[in-house]
């Protein structure tokens, strides 16, 4: 028996060694004054396999400003020995004290993401999807999909724009056969050096929703390592349903179309189901405050607290729950976290019955730097059975960020990491990034609302670039599997050392995953769990994910 265990252990080591040897390292391109980007081209794209930690040892992965990308190290746990006293910073992990269960991590398949994906040669389309979703990639397991158009489309559109005032949505179709204007202005056609063909973007643009988004989701589902949970969101319904008859501006839903707008969601679930794609959750409209106050220059639908409550209780809730899609989750809010206390809680004060229909709230990232995460407790304390999911984030969206795509930016990776750590430590169950891939300008985007993305596609050079933000996401998504529970982790440090931001999880496989963000210079820390401890070296300006079995 013992012999068998030794052989098994050797075998595991052997497999690990092979896997590690097979990891394809980052093809680093240093951007002057910044960190590196990893270049994927027609023949090469880096990948990473997660090594299963063997008892008594840990596997750690490090990404740093200096250029490490998922750099693996293996180390040993030792019996606690207080005479060592080596660490000025230590982390006490208690797997017995558990918090929220994780749903997952992901990004958004917008029209723009799909168009950029499609602008690559086929072999690179596969690289891009594998990089995010496969066993050798970040193992994303969540997606957000717009219902109809959003700003990251090539023009504003919705389903069933014609005929007007069609309460039954008799002409609801995913493919829209529509005008081709504007797109050529946004992304000029170019000659693909590989094929020597002049790429016709109009082909992609023409009904891109059905042509590109659905195939992209299908390709994703083929390689994903756990079922992909899709969150679908409407930015704006057809303008005839709205008080101002425009996609943008101050507007609300016309009272006579409350049921039609619920049907608009139901039909989307139905159309995607016909394509073999099940939607996991819908939200109750993207950023309802924007349209209410006229804050945005992109597609919106404004909602007051009262009207939203009324719509959920009288229209959307009953329609979904009395249908074959009754298990589809309904997430409310889908707006900045500061809206929770007055907006989401406002709905529930006025329409407590909405609680019967709502599974939780979606929160967006853009005001997180000024609004304390403590507001999230307004949900998890008051409604402990409702989930909080981070449904949208991106860098480069603020007006003062004049450089929309900042290749190689380390501060933008830190911004993602800090926000994810903060959210996870406040009971958030998952974190969905925006556009999976954008072009070198951060588009296409009909409203010229260009932003950054973890993957930037340079179709003219037949390359795409994995930004530091990409690896930032991976330090969570690849290791914190769905069903993992957050566990207690306590930092003990001497007064004069800076804090290392942290979070810890117990995975369904029984391993412990710890994520540590070191924003200072190089140092050693002790990680203690049960009767054992390990010393871990944290590189300067780095994020480290450590996985091990806790011997309690
Ligand atoms: C891809 O990058 C590698 C490494 O720089 C290079 O050797 C290879 O020629 C590139 N392939 C193409 C098609 O550019
Ligand atoms: C590792 O330890 C766990 C419990 O501590 C045990 O269930 C498991 O069998 C061990 N695995 C190996 C390979 O020794
Ligand atoms: C603890 O560490 C000290 C110093 O390395 C060593 O002498 C001692 O034997 C260790 N004790 C145990 C229980 O491992
Ligand atoms: C249905 O929608 C299409 C656009 O998708 C439009 O061309 C057609 O005229 C519409 N049909 C009716 C009856 O309005
Ligand atoms: C749709 O309804 C609006 C408002 O009631 C009305 O002004 C408009 O003429 C109607 N459009 C059609 C095509 O019936
Ligand atoms: C496709 C796209 O960009 N969608 C979004 C990308 O991120 C920005 C930032 O929020 C959003 O505004 C876009 O809607």
TrEMBL record:
The Glycosyl hydrolase family 30 TIM-barrel domain, residue ranges: 102-184, 213-480
A cellular component term, taken from the record's GO annotations: membrane
Protein name: Glucosylceramidase
A single GO molecular function term of this UniProt record: glucosylceramidase activity
Signal peptide: 1-17
Keyword Plastid among UniProt keywords: no
Record's keyword terms, sorted: Glycosidase, Hydrolase, Lipid metabolism, Signal, Sphingolipid metabolism
Keyword Nuclease: no
Enzyme Commission code: 3.2.1.45
PANTHER family (UniProt xref): GLUCOSYLCERAMIDASE, LYSOSOMAL ACID GLUCOSYLCERAMIDASE
Similarity comment: family membership: Belongs to the glycosyl hydrolase 30 family.
Start and end residues of each Glycosyl hydrolase family 30 beta sandwich domain: 483-546
Species annotation: Parnassius apollo (Apollo butterfly)
Protein's GO biological process: glucosylceramide catabolic process
Cited InterPro entries: GH30_C, Glyco_hydro_30, Glyco_hydro_30_TIM-barrel
Reactions catalysed according to its record: a beta-D-glucosyl-(1<->1')-N-acylsphing-4-enine + H2O = an N-acylsphing-4-enine + D-glucose
């Amino acid at each position: 028996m013992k012999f068998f265990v030794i052989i098994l252990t050797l075998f595991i080591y052997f497999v690990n060694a092979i896997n590690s040897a097979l990891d394809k390292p980052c093809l680093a391109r240093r951007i002057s004054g910044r960190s590196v980007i990893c270049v994927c081209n027609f023949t090469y794209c880096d990948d990473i396999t997660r090594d299963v930690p063997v008892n008594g040892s840990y596997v750690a992965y490090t990404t740093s400003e200096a250029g490490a990308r998922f750099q693996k190290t293996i180390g040993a746990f030792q019996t606690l020995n207080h005479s060592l006293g080596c660490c000025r910073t230590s982390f006490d992990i208690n797997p017995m004290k558990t918090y929220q269960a994780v749903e997952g991590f992901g990004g958004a398949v917008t029209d723009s993401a799909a168009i950029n994906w499609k602008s690559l040669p086929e072999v690179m389309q596969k690289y891009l999807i594998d990089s995010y979703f496969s066993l050798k990639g970040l193992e994303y397991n969540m997606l957000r999909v717009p219902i109809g158009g959003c700003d990251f489309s090539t023009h504003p559109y919705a389903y069933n724009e014609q005929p007007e005032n069609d309460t039954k949505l008799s002409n609801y179709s995913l493919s829209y056969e529509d005008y081709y204007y504007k797109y050529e202005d946004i992304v000029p056609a170019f000659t693909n050096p590989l094929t020597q063909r002049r790429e016709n973007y109009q082909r992609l643009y023409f009904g891109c929703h059905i042509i590109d988004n659905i195939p992209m989701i299908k390709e994703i589902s083929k390689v994903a390592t756990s079922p992909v949970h899709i969150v679908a969101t409407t930015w704006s319904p057809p303008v005839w349903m709205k008080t101002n008859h425009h996609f943008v501006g101050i507007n609300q839903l016309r009272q006579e179309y409350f049921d039609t707008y619920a049907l608009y969601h139901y039909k989307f679930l139905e159309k995607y189901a016909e394509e073999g794609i099940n939607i996991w959750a819908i939200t109750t409209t993207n950023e309802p405050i924007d349209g209410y106050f006229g804050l945005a220059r992109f597609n919106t639908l404004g909602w007051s607290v009262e009207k939203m409550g009324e719509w959920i209780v009288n229209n959307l809730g009953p329609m979904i729950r009395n249908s074959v899609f009754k298990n589809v989750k309904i997430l409310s809010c889908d707006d900045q976290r500061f809206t929770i206390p007055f907006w989401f809680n406002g709905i529930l004060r006025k329409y407590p019955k909405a609680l019967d229909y709502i599974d939780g709230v979606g929160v967006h990232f853009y005001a997180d730097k000024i609004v304390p995460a403590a507001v999230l407790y307004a949900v998890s304390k008051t409604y402990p059975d409702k989930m909080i999911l981070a449904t949208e984030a991106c860098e480069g969206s603020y007006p003062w960020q004049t450089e929309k795509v900042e290749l190689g930016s380390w501060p933008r990776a830190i911004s993602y990491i800090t926000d994810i750590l903060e959210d996870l430590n406040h009971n958030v169950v998952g974190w969905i990034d925006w556009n999976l891939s954008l072009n070198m300008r951060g588009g296409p985007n009909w409203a010229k609302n260009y932003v950054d993305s973890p993957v930037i596609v340079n179709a003219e050079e037949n390359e795409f670039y994995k930004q530091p933000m990409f690896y930032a996401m991976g330090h969570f998504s690849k290791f914190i599997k769905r069903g993992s529970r957050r566990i207690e982790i306590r930092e003990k440090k001497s007064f004069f050392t800076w804090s290392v931001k942290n979070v810890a999880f117990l995975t369904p496989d029984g391993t412990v995953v710890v994520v540590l963000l070191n924003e200072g210079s190089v140092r050693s820390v002790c990680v203690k769990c049960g009767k054992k401890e390990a010393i871990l070296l944290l590189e300067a300006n780095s994020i480290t994910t450590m996985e091990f079995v806790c011997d309690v």
